[in-house]
Design brief:
Layout: E1 24-26, E2 32-36, E3 45-47, E4 54-55, E5 60-64, E6 74-75, E7 80-89, E8 95-103, H1 125-134, H2 147-150, E9 161-165, H3 175-182, H4 184-198, E10 203-208, H5 215-224, E11 231-236, H6 245-253, E12 268-272, H7 273-284, E13 291-297, E14 305-310, H8 318-321, E15 330-335, E16 342-344, E17 357-362, H9 379-383, H10 390-398, H11 402-407, H12 418-422, H13 429-450
Parallel strand pairs: 1-14, 9-10, 9-12, 10-11, 13-17
Antiparallel strand pairs: 2-8, 3-5, 4-7, 5-6, 7-8, 13-14, 15-16, 15-17
Length: 451
């Protein structure tokens, strides 16, 4: 099997050995969970329950106010009583409305309100899309984009390739590998369902070559499902950020997503392997997205694990019942991987649908440097996997010239952090690009309002 790759990028220390090959362990249900009402990209949700209501596991507790808007509903991950609905700090470091549920001691996981199973290959496309939406499934690789929207490309967008993203290029994280190892049947089933919904005849499971041991397992499931010749496996070189949609498409198909475009503009639909497994369970079990598989690692975690947790479980509850944290050496908490994850100030934050991992880092694992002056060395350009010019984008943003920053590639930046990692002056490039994008969006909104 040939090994595919993309140009540029970084060869990073993977730091996966602490959880590599470990099974996924299910955590005990805590006494209370805190479920954010909004866990997706798109229109905001409104709570559908009130304080004092008794809810079942799988019951819808929040949805968009306007039918058909870009969004995904949220469901109770445990059975219990709604204790309160109020603001709470979330993994994006912002406060958001959350539903607090006191879990029933004996029926937290058994008192369910799942949907009836649905045959994905016998129902209509509209019914299948509706099932994916009603299950509240979003991209579980980190972006949180509603999956039913991905599976409904607009007229004129010809899709001929489905890509299952199992690259998992971020250091520390191993949950995708664990899912492909433990649930290969559900993964192939999810791919088959997506192929049927979109009418596509070919699919590729993309993963880095450090997971080559999974190839025989997946090939066996492909044969068992009778999908030889329709689902293939594409091994990619272990290189960051191979898991980015655009780069995975480039490596596996040779196609390029156009500037400002989406994967559908290159004829592809890309879904994380966890998302595809959730799709299979939504049809076969009627199960909404109420559980999240994630990696908990880092040197400040004494017992690194791959875990399965109800969505809304507080990180601060995990050390009390399931894992050991060395608080004396804990220096930094990351939601997601170390390259694209978000640093948070406390463990008092709930797990969300897009939480792929939590990294508990010591001071030795982190570093803080004062910014120097740009010396125009072009190392950021050589590292940029998107072929952009971060140095020119940075100069334009420093002078307040947003139009020039856009011409240099600002809106095509995937914020992977490769430029900042490679910068000898330690300039906080990604943070500036994020702020620049926010300024540009605000400027465009102001212009539209004026018109």
């Amino acid at each position: 099997m040939s090994i595919k790759t993309f140009k540029r990028g970084l060869r990073l220390p993977t730091r996966k050995t602490a959880t590599e090959g470990k099974p996924i362990e299910t955590i005990p249900v805590p006494k209370q969970i805190v479920i954010p009402v909004n866990q997706h990209f798109g229109a905001p949700n409104q709570a559908l329950v009130a304080v004092g209501d008794r809810v079942k596991r799988g019951q819808k507790i929040a949805d968009a106010e306007k039918p058909g808007s870009l969004g995904a509903p949220v469901h109770a991950s445990v059975a219990g009583i709604v204790r309160k609905i109020e603001m709470h700090l979330q993994s994006n470091n912002g406060d958001g409305v959350c539903v607090y549920i006191d879990a029933d001691a004996d029926r937290a996981l058994t008192d369910t309100a799942f949907m009836p199973p649905l045959d994905a290959f016998a129902c209509s496309k509209d019914e299948a899309i509706a099932r994916v939406r009603e299950a509240g499934i979003v991209g579980m690789g980190g972006a949180g984009f509603p999956t039913h929207v991905k599976l409904s490309p607009p007229p004129g967008k010809h899709i001929d390739a489905i890509i299952a993203n199992g690259a998992e290029c971020e250091p520390y994280l191993t949950i995708d590998e664990a899912l492909m190892s433990e649930k290969p049947k559900q993964l192939i089933r999810g791919i088959a369902v997506v192929m049927h919904i979109t009418g596509v005849q070919n699919a590729i499971i993309g993963m880095e070559d450090n997971k080559a041991s999974l190839v025989p397992v997946l090939e066996q499931e492909i044969r068992s499902a009778g999908l030889e010749g329709k689902i293939s496996i594409g091994l990619c070189r272990t290189r960051y950020p191979q898991g980015s949609e655009k780069l995975l498409i480039s490596a596996l198909t040779g196609r390029e997503v156009p500037s400002g475009g989406l994967p559908m503009d290159a004829g592809c639909v890309v879904n994380n392997v966890g998302t595809l497994i959730a799709i299979a369970e939504a049809f076969d079990l009627g199960k909404p997205l109420v559980d999240r598989d994630l990696t908990v690692s880092g040197l400040a975690c004494k017992t690194p694990k791959n875990i399965r947790a109800p969505i809304g479980v507080m990180l601060s509850d995990l050390p009390q019942c399931f894992m050991d944290v060395d608080y004396e050496t804990l220096h930094k908490i990351l939601f997601g991987g170390p390259m694209m994850g978000t640093s948070v100030p406390t463990l008092d934050i709930p797990v969300q649908k897009n939480t792929s991992g939590v990294i508990l880092m010591t001071r030795e694992e982190t570093s803080a440097y004062a910014e120097g002056s740009c010396i125009r060395c072009s190392r950021c350009i050589r590292a940029c996997s998107c072929g952009l010019s971060p140095v020119l984008m940075n100069i334009a943003l420093n002078t307040g010239d947003l139009d020039e920053a856009v011409r240099a590639g600002l809106m095509d930046c995937v914020e992977c952090g490769g430029c900042m990692y490679n910068c000898p002056a330690r300039i906080k490039l990604v943070q500036r690009f994020k702020v620049g994008k926010q300024l540009l969006r605000s400027q465009r909104q102001t212009e539209r309002a004026a018109q």
